[in-house]
Records
---
Amino acid sequence: MRATSYTPRFEEPVKEHNIRKVDEYMTRNVITFSPDMNVYAAIQILLKNKIAGGPVLDGKGNMVGVLSENDCLRLLTLETYHNLPNHKVEHYMSTHVESILWNSSVVDAAEKFRAEGYRRLPVTKDGKLVGQISRRDCLRAISDEKNAQEKEL
């Protein structure tokens, strides 16, 4: 049996004034990595903080990549499991970084999540990292909007 996705048809268009912005839901204290950090130390940070990844920033605070769990899995698939060499984050991070602007709507973020399959997106303002938004943050926006609508009734 094959599952299919369902796209509901809405009779009313989305009300622009109700759409929340990314900066209302993003995490501001983002765990980041540096390119020269040992990848094993980065894995320990991922595990300790129960996160799936984070932005990689150079010494000037510019985002140069993202390190994800998936990137780290390359250690198992490309290296000898019992003889793991000492590598830096820069050897494993993804350098194609998709981000979203701080003043974008959560709808824009949700569309990127659905279209691209990302779990989280770095949030930028004036080219600098200011936070990170996740799929779960967008779900909180849905919940908040539903609660606000119920209060209006």
Note: The longest strand covers residues 128-134.
---
Amino acid sequence: MDAIAKMKNIPLSARKMRFVIDSIRGKSVNEALGILKFSKREASEFAEKLLLSAVSNWENKLDMVYSADDFGLYVKEVFSDEAGHLKRFRPAPHGKALRIRKRSNHLTLVVSNKVEIEAEVGDLIDNENIED
């Protein structure tokens, strides 16, 4: 089962964000959180918030019955797309003006579980019937 989280209009260029998200793609959630927690880049703060939101979305999809730690959640997909630019001007010599583009991006993160939920629930039900 997949859970998606999106963050839009992050005031950081998509290129800078891709340096961070390339390091967590395909990793387990706990490992990705460790990488993001100790990264010095500003983009890691946004990615960490989004990863926690995706895990929370996954738990809410299952009505908070299961914990994310039991099912081996991992970062299935993560990508950064360019968003709009804020266009500003700075004075330059000889009465000219130079354009400054303040870039932003949209970040999308998908988490999925490695352990199947249906098989796990079936095993729990079978074990309870055996014990009775």
Note: The radius of gyration is 21 Å.
---
Amino acid sequence: MTTLAASPGASRRREAFRWTLGLAALVFGVTTLLSGGKVLFGGAEARADAGAVVDFVLLFNFGAGFAYVLAGGGALARRRWSLHLARLLAGATVLIFAALGVHIASGGAFEIRTVAAMTLRSLFWLGQALALTQIFKPPAGVLPNSEEK
């Protein structure tokens, strides 16, 4: 049986894109951990500087920061599970964003920058999930389960 091989140029572009996605997720994860950690562990002054913190959003984002780093490392290591983790992160982030909407609609205190940050996070992980789907799509002529990764 013969398989159609992807052109070397297309393969290099796919690899460069995978690296870009992985590094972006790593940077996003580290910055999330640093900013969330500062508010969580930086004392009363850091908490006051953050304004009207929505605790469940802060806790989710901080915890998800570890998963962001893991997803980025998985993408860099060519691990297909990074695609599944990106999908999970996208879905969970959208759900937390919806819960933030309910919190706001019911009169809860919030910062507009939290809405902006959740918009960015949702778009980032939806984009990651869509892009990694293309990265891990088997080349034409190769069966989907024939790869080990």
Note: The chain has a mean pLDDT of 91.
---
Amino acid sequence: MNAMTKIKSYVDVGIETNVSSADPHKLILLLYQGAQLAIASAKNHMLRKEIPLKGKSVSHAITIIDEGLKASLNQEAGGELAGNLASLYEYMSRRLLQANLENDPAILDEVSGLLAELRTAWESIRKPNAAAAVAEAPQPAPAKTAAYGAGLAAVAPRVYERA
């Protein structure tokens, strides 16, 4: 077994352990992390002109967004915010497909940034008085996800299905 295979096996075991011991909140964080890692991998492969590996990484990111994040939304209880998040996830998937077709790393950066903003908002709801913390925190420059991030912290328990 070569060194890369050993490292991959170690990482796979670590991921499986995190998933099996995670609560629903942590699972969503793991999905955000996984999508961002897949996008980073796609960008790396894109820059190295490793086209098949780039396509595989982009597909992996799209799968995480569509079958993980979007599929876990609770449309009924999450109301308008869940609908807006679903639309944002669809947008991200389309942009990733476009990045893959056009070999455009800037689009990968855009989607990774959107995921980072949502992940930060989701992380903030773990803290006591999270809604107040989000309201009091310095707000970043207006972005597509700013309204979603603030609203996400306020209604997070209703937005995603309970695992």
Note: Residues 2-17, 129-147 have pLDDT under 50 and may be disordered.
